[in-house]
Batch of 2 targets.
Target 1
Amino acid sequence: MEVEASFSHISSPIFDRENYQLWAVRMKTYLEALDLWEAIEKDYDVPPLPNNPTIAQIKSHKERKTKQSKAKVCLFAAISTTIFTRNMSLKSAKDVWDYLKKEYVGDEKIRGMQNLNLKQEFELQRMKESETIKEYSDRLLGIVNRVKLLGISFTDFRIIEKNLVTVPEKYKALITTLENTKDLSKITLAELLNALQAQEKRRLMRQDHVIEGALQAKYPDSDKKKFFRKKKLGFKQQ
């Protein structure tokens, strides 16, 4: 009970007509944590109490009605005012949930068009020279997650293939090595990203060494000592 009480202070995700699928996943998890999802999923009726009910019957009746009321309150609190005014007359939490799903998920034709647009967006992605491996992979995974929220599968292997063919030329030597030493049909996305990030880190370290070497060549140690000695004397004179 203490955990539920403390969790109830966490704000529910707010839906304002954008990214319904993402909101629905978060909202369902939120309701499950509060033990209220059953009131929406099963939409049970609460029959009236019999004559001379027992204490257990009274308690069960109250709990079931309270869950339905709380679930409805949570949904109303999690939608914008504009959306609330359009469904405030609905009777149950289940009615509210179904209305939102029908209104904002759309029919199969609309979902199919959304899926097609997202997959085209995915195919057009290319890693920029200024991007890191993490930034690029996060961009790809963001698109993939939006596809999955439509209820459409998207395999990790497609993401792996995308990374292999769209990263800049500076990673091609690593990819050739992977092709020669591993079965790329069995490599995991995490393994590939770790290998690319390790290569990225090595390149950055080499660049740092080159810059450091150039500075040392331009400013020999003897010149550095003279420079700092002059600065020290100058401070003393002041």
Target 2
Amino acid sequence: MINNILTRVSRRKSSARQSERGFTLVEMLVVITIIALIMALVGPRVLNYLTDAKIKTAKIQIVSLEHALDLYYLDANRYPTSSEGLRALIERPGVSVGWNGPYLKSDAIPNDPWGRPYIYRSPGEHGPYDIMSYGADGQEGGTGADADITSWGK
């Protein structure tokens, strides 16, 4: 009788251990493969959205700089020269008459979304001033994410 009871208890412990067992190596590899396939399909789309967001950010920042330059023009009756640069929007350039800035809310001129300063030329080739970013590659020209983003090519 005692032997019979011990056998039943032993079977219960054995079945409890089987229900608590972990994942096998094959199961883990299947899960990792599924996750890798999902990332292979979703990853490029996410990266494409990030690239598009950087391009849109650059365009918005250029428009913001244009508005600040227009306010500068209303006060000083001229745009900052190329040598004064965009810095004239936050600091009085020399003995500038009529400067009533700063014309930007931040204390620094924003860099483009790729971390490089915007290029400012005044007088510009396409208007009273030109503002541009060379895009992701940092070189003039290019297509897609590497394309130049300019104040005149809207």
